[in-house]
Amino acid sequence: MDLQTSLTGLFTNAGTFGVKGIFQFVFSPQHAYWCEAGEHARAKPGKHAAPDVTIEVTQQDLLGIMAGSANVEELFASGRLTIGGNLGLATLLPQIIDQARRGGKAQKSEMNQRYVTPPRYSERVSASLPQLTLVQRVPAVQMTVERFRRDYLPNGTPVVISDALHEWKLFNLDRQASLEHFAELQGITRHGDYVKKTFSTDRDFRSTSMADFINSLDNPQPSTNPGSPPAYMGNNIVPAQLLELIQHPPYFERSLYIAPRIWIGPKGTLTPLHRDDTDNLFAQVWGHKSFILAAPHHRPALGTWSTAPKGGLDGCDFNPDAPDYQRFPEARTVPFLRVLLEAGDLLFLPEGWFHQVESVSTSLSVNFWVNSGRGW
């Protein structure tokens, strides 16, 4: 199959989940293709006069991405793929690729649309259990795999495992040594009032050197948007060069782990109340983060909405730090749990649990989503 046909196929179903725009692929000054995503996908050789997204990558790496042997996020993080233009639209490229690989027609949805949140099995489980009044803290030396799988995993019970990262090279590096490992890497940062645009591609995304961003944490610049949270490098894939510096926690089989993600930011970065669709192990490498948790069955009280018709990533309009009980009267009965993660802590955050996350200090975290299949 020729490249033009392959690119057309890649974007054929992108319009199904609301993606519309021109993606320009540049392989060299003389070799380029542009692709239109929308109701009628097409690909043409050459350069478009006004692309929405420009991606510079070798043809070999692009073919690897399309074949499933290369990861677009890893290539970006390592600097082998660069992105310009609308980075909010560009962040959907992994989803476009995944949909093209799976084939078939996805359920129609619109980008940045809110949908009614369907109930989950985890809600029935948490509603049937005694109310949790605190999140236990257990030292790693006492948290055997057997104990974790017996006492915490089956019912989806959150727990903090302390002193869990001491064998990580990343945890034991000083700041300067860490910067040397981050020197050639890049990530995507969020700017402006990204909290009010939670999970929207309309957020102000920018491509940034990881080392430069970490250096900037010690010398913050005055905000151009007073009242907005500070810039945040959130939910970036852990680059291949850093994988040897971390360790996958032993509590799940390695094959069940999704590629780990890295989160870097100064004090004040905030992710509003939401829930994911998989179990999560969240490792605090530098600094402190606070979590506010609510059990899955409190969904109806929290103004919950979904980013897709069948649910998955679910946001909430209720803010436990600034509660609006007039708008959400049922939220008065929700027992929120507050957890402070210290450097070296590992939090088990089960599927379905709502969580709001804030950096209490300059922070670097790594999280591991897990396709555990629990409860589905």
Fold and architecture overview:
The chain has two domains: 3-102, SCP2 sterol-binding domain (Nonspecific Lipid-transfer Protein, Chain A), CATH 3.30.1050.10; 121-370, Jelly Rolls, CATH 2.60.120.650. Helix content is 20%, strand content 28%. It has eleven helices and 20 strands. The strands form four sheets. A seven-stranded mixed beta sheet has the order 6-7-18-13-20-11-10. Strands 15-16-12-19-14-17 form a six-stranded antiparallel beta sheet, with no helix packed on it. Strands 3-2-1-4-5 form a five-stranded mixed beta sheet. The two termini are 38 Å apart.
Structure classification: alpha+beta
Proper CATH architecture of the largest domain: Sandwich
- Number of beta strands: 20
Shape: globular
Which secondary structure elements does this structure contain, and how are they paired or packed?
Layout lengths: L2 H9 L9 E8 L2 E7 L4 E4 L7 E4 L2 H9 L4 H6 L4 E4 L1 H4 L2 H10 L18 H7 L8 E4 L5 H7 L7 E4 L6 H4 L2 H8 L3 E6 L12 E6 H9 L14 E5 L2 H4 L17 E5 L4 E6 L3 E8 L2 E6 L9 E3 L7 E3 L20 E5 L4 E4 L4 E6 L3 E8 L6
Parallel strand pairs: 1-4, 6-7
Antiparallel strand pairs: 1-2, 2-3, 4-5, 7-18, 8-9, 10-11, 11-20, 12-16, 12-19, 13-18, 13-20, 14-17, 14-19, 15-16
